[in-house]
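Can't attach files on this board, so I'm pasting raw text. These are the components:
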Amino acid sequence: MAETLEQVTLRVNGTTRQLRVPARRLLSDALRHDLRLTGTHVGCEHGVCGCCTVLLDGDPVRSCLMFAVSAEGHELTTVEGLTPRDGDELHPIQRSFQECHGLQCGFCTPGFIMSIAGLLADNPDPDEDEIVEGISGNLCRCTGYRNIIRAVQRAAELLRAAESEAPGADDPSPHGAATTTSVSVPYAPSGADDHDATGDEGSAR
Amino acid sequence: MTTQMFGEAIVRREDPRLLRGDGHYLDDLGHDAYAVAFARSPHAHARVTQIDVADALDVDGLIAIYTYDDLPARLAEPLPLLIPHPALTAPRTGHALAPAVVHHVGEPVVMVVASDRYIAEDVVDRIVVTYEPLPAVVGVERAASGQRVVHDGMDDNVAAHLLQEVGDVDAALATAPHRLDLRFEIERSASMPMEGRGVLARWDPDDPRLRVYTSTQTTTSVRAAIAAAFDLADVHVEVIAPDVGGGFGVKIMHPWPEELLVPWAAMTLGHEVKWVEDRREHFISSSHERGQIHDVTVGYDDDGRILALDVRFLHDNGAYTPYGIIVPIITSTQLPGPYKLPNYRVEFTSLYTNTVIVTPYRGAGRPQAVFAMERTIDAIARDLGADRTQVRAANFVQPDEFPYDVGLVFQDGRPTIYDSGDFQASLRKLTALIGWGAFAQQKEQAQADGRMLGIGLACYVEGTGVGPYEGAHVHVETSGRVMVSTGLTTQGQGHETAFAQIVATELGVPIEDVAVTTGDTRRFGYAVGTFASRAAVMSGNAIALAARAVNAKARTVAARALEANPDDMEIIDGVVRVKGSPAEGIPLNQVAVLSNPLRYSFSEAAQAATQFAVPADDDQPPVRDGEEPGLEGRAYYSPPRSTFANGMHAAVVEVDPQSGNVAVLDYAVVHDCGNLVNPRIVEGQIHGGVAQGIGGALYERMAYDEHGQLLNASFMDFLMPYASEVPTVRIDHLETPSPLNPLGVKGAGEAGVIPGAATIAAAIEDATGVPISRMPLSPDELFRLLRSNGTAPLAPLGALGTSIPEPDDQHGGNA
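---
Top answer:
Structure tokens for the assembled complex are below.
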């Protein structure tokens, strides 16, 4: 009774990734455990806490409420897609979080950042009520939120300043990093990881 | 001075890693590990009569199924009693897997190991456990009645009973001009970190060594528990806390069943094994806190001075007492707060119920204590028609009375002696910050506009930095890197930054050169853990002492090379130099080279320390008597007793009489935690604490039904504040340094949450005129209170229906 596996092609952070996963595999698990993009966190698995928020075609969504197979044909952005992976650059939203002390344990933080990326893409100059509304799908147990609100205000400033300097860059979410080139990285699981992606040798153990 | 970092509000050094998604939390590790899921008891109290796994065996990907009967002898024993106490006369602890009887919903009964978590849960679904349900005991008053008993072999549900008394309460009460009898109740809540618990274990049979990653607040003690359970040498067990997504107390409890079962499975199966808690598991299988009912009798004079305070309270400890009776002891001893109580008696009974265990949650018994004390003071003020700040001031311990001995035995077994503070000064700051004096007019004006505003305040004293000790190791490598380690753990407190600030200051090095590791037994094996607002006090001071030792050693080594006197040397910006002659100096990395006499060189820099390069003093050994090679230092800090921080909160709320909704319009905090290592981090701790305090006041409760089912075990139903529920917090600091430790610091981690419920209750009471004696208070509960008091309009009543359930009936009665 081995599980049937689906061939899934995901576009993540500007890159095309191939997976073979069961139809029931959550997008959050596929991102974290199959693609090893562990910046996306899972805090409740029932769609309330917002830790797993990623951008789907630019809109914030809960990756724990979506199957990986359902994400095919969409453009996904995770926190890893905000900045180049090979440096230590911070996206303006990330910089603002540091400046305003908008994080403590950091577990909820990538979810907030992705929600805010979506918010600021839609509304580059939100007032405080709009910010509170925009982050009210994300729980944080450490910060008491006020510094996060300040961070959003600061990020909006930074992004608007960057915008006026470089009028071409209109979308804050894939800032700098995500290229438009599509690189196909076939997913080739190996060894004991196979059960995650292909589930076809569990009985061998 | 670039190296004078202590006290600076610098940005955190851990942030870029966490912001980029490069943190390593427990479930970010071990992608190839087998996964674990548990069959947990669906009953609060039941006998396990049969476990049938037949239908589960053919699930593809199943690795193993374990029940109690499969456990080796040591793992089958009851879990440890971590903190015994003479008053805990009937301690009970659970088991790694439940034997014959389960005592709360969520107790682990069967462990499943499979190729991934989906499969493991499939297997759990196919295992049939047959239970014979037994009557459940839910609610601390039902437990006290003793009609039903939680544990076989006990005649009642009393785990512990403890009385402490200062002075003569009965005599003072008999002669007091005024007297009030009051009852105050706080319901259960929980730490609820965004990351649940989790354990990953690797066993290397070739080099017998067990490595365990766990999302814990104490790695050294988890190591001790694992080593004891499997009869392994301490050095063969490595326990590491990776990045931890919040703790707030729940993760100081240990060893959790999973912290023993997962390593055991890894050793048994010869494969990495991981268990990651899901949210429902966290609700029903970790721990809760707060549930207490307090009966208070207070006697006072015409000025509101308290002559006698008599407190009796019931503490709900849940199904087991692995963490002892720390929480009710803290309530008992912290209840006096900033007030002089010449005659104080406190007596608690800690009771078993068929619910999740109770262990400290941020504040740990203090929110309840402060609620009882501060509500009592407000009741006195109300009775006398006095201003609430005046009654408080009349009872304050005065600045010239420190050290002030409260006369009680604190949670560390040591006397409760306040080391420093200035409560009157704090109160002045608070009333200025919130605008206490001008509020009456504001309230009146609002009233004229049909709005219901109220103001409240609450004070607390918090014993922080409890012992027994912490230690630290500071090592200057020949690269110039300063490697710092301390054994206690980090769950978001910014230790990588605050501890590096201490080292930069004490050692005289740029902070960029300092790297801090916490909670890794491979780096530092002696530690207690992160709880009780103790990290900055305990590890902070240990790190300062270790850095000072390295500073002294660096000056000695450099002085020898420069033929100078170590006392004439100083370290500025990472260079050890002769005072007044900045040109004469040796960089610290070169001092590190010189401190370690070499036979073999591996770099140009290291050649300076080889045997033919160093001018030899033939009368002296290369490593002098009493010295050690290497530029490193190790030190421990062990205080005689806790250091007591204090503070006061005030809030302005608006109550909507139509809905019972409470909006917090203003929130002010005055906080005295001695010297601040990093004000930015301290303020962040306060912000987060206040949010949890507001959650505890207005939203968060564990709703158990009479059968012991937790009805709101999800984030859908257990309401934690979002950004929309937390106000801006305005903070003012008072810094009265602690005389007890070299840095003069006190703990700051828990303070923000402690007076939250008391402050909000006081403000609601002021707004509505209705006495508030229990928290949390939901809009519908407040509405009912207002209506019964004639404060709320009658209009919306029809919509609610006519049945008004009693509090005990609240989960089932509202037709």
